[in-house]
Write a structure and sequence with these properties.
alpha/beta; Rossmann fold; UDP-galactose 4-epimerase, domain 1; 2 domains; two-stranded parallel ribbon; 13 strands; globular; binds uridine-diphosphate-N-acetylgalactosamine
């Protein structure tokens, strides 16, 4: 399969999701520029495509770096961000320089370069603790952290750039994304990456609360398909669209499934719930279906199997996923 654009910029292309997107675009014959400051991204994530991409070490806080990276790019995928919620809580101003101003630099660079489309990586965090389920794009955002405020702000800017300047901007609200290369090194890393690293080390995890809280886990290759779909679908312009599966699993069952893959019968340790933890999260998927014709293809079981295999293989190759806390922004 090919894509209708020849040259794309991926900001944050050395990160977990960005590197999968970059590989997929390269495989489709697209010329890709990656802009990353390696604050949480890693060069090794791009090993397989290193010879095929233009890799620029630069920061989205620097408007000239973004402008240079965007030259000639028909499409921009904007994933670079401070991705740690606790980091944005500790440093609201510094994180706003990246997540708010950086996003504006990307949108300006798109305007300057004459890019036709920008796909912005947003988050289900914008829904906050709204008890309504499933989470619908029509719900009023209830951000509970600087991170969520910054994501909804980016969405509003993206929409305004569509309305004022005619760029086909689309914001995708990722639910709980998982897959190979997700970094498990911080306590706030995605729960699947943490459970996987525990399982391959043959130890039990910590479950916060009673483990009945549930999440909508979406496999990274499906997220990549949604991003490419959003870049090439006119109907997505100016819209905010959930990217999830429409189903959820609770944390107890998630651990039992992963433990089963590792042949483990460890009982997890139960600690008090995390402050601000929400009970349930699941995406309404009809907007993605109707606007993008998008449906997830990888089942949770398949995705977990693929992810488990990757963590198991990484453990034997010099700790490929072990990472210093500082690289994760902690
Ligand atoms: C997700 C996002 C976060 C923010 C938030 C908004 C990820 C990785 N995080 O947080 O950035 O957008 O949604 O709602 O996508 N848990 C354990 N043991 C562990 C780790 C986690 O029990 O070792 C629990 C945790 O308390 C929570 C669930 O697992 O109930 C999922 O945790 P998470 O950090 O993967 O994701 P979430 O939904 O809290």
């Amino acid at each position: 399969m090919t894509v209708s654009f020849k040259k794309a910029l991926v900001t944050g292309g050395a990160g977990f999701i960005g590197s999968h997107l970059t590989e997929n675009l390269v495989a489709k014959g697209c010329r890709v520029t990656v802009l990353d400051n390696f604050s949480s991204g890693r060069r090794t994530n791009l090993t397989r495509v290193a010879a095929d991409i233009d890799l620029i070490e630069g920061d989205i806080r620097d408007p000239l770096a973004v402008e240079r990276a965007a030259k000639g790019c028909e499409v921009i995928f904007h994933l670079a961000a401070v991705v740690s919620v606790p980091q944005t809580v500790a440093q609201p101003l510094d994180s706003a320089r990246v997540n708010d101003l950086g996003t504006l630099h990307v949108l300006e660079a798109a305007r300057d370069a004459g890019s036709g489309a920008v796909v912005f990586a947003s988050s289900s965090a914008v829904y906050g603790d709204d008890p309504g389920l499933p989470k619908r794009e029509s719900m009023i955002p209830k951000p509970l952290s600087p991170y969520a405020v910054q994501k909804i702000t980016g969405e509003y800017y993206a929409r305004v750039y569509h309305e004022l300047y005619g760029i086909d901007t689309a914001s995708l609200r990722f639910f709980n994304v998982f897959g190979p290369r997700q970094d498990p090194s911080s306590p706030y890393s995605g729960v699947i990456s943490i459970f996987m690293s525990k399982a391959v080390a043959q130890t039990g995890p910590i479950i916060y609360g009673d483990g009945t809280q549930s999440r909508d886990f979406v496999y990274v290759s499906d997220v990549v398909r949604a991003m490419i779909g959003a870049a090439t679908t006119k109907a997505a312009a100016g819209q905010s669209i959930n990217v999830g599966t429409g189903t959820s699993i609770d944390i107890n069952r998630l651990w039992r499934t992963i433990a089963g893959m590792a042949g483990l019968s460890n009982v997890p340790r139960y600690d008090p719930p995390r402050a601000g933890d929400i009970i349930a999260s699941v995406a309404a998927v009809d907007t993605a279906e109707s606007l993008l014709g998008f449906k997830t293809e990888v089942s949770l079981e398949d995705g977990l199997e693929r992810t488990f295999r990757w963590y198991a293989a990484s453990q034997t190759t010099a700790g490929a996923y072990s990472q210093k806390g500082s690289e994760n922004g902690d």
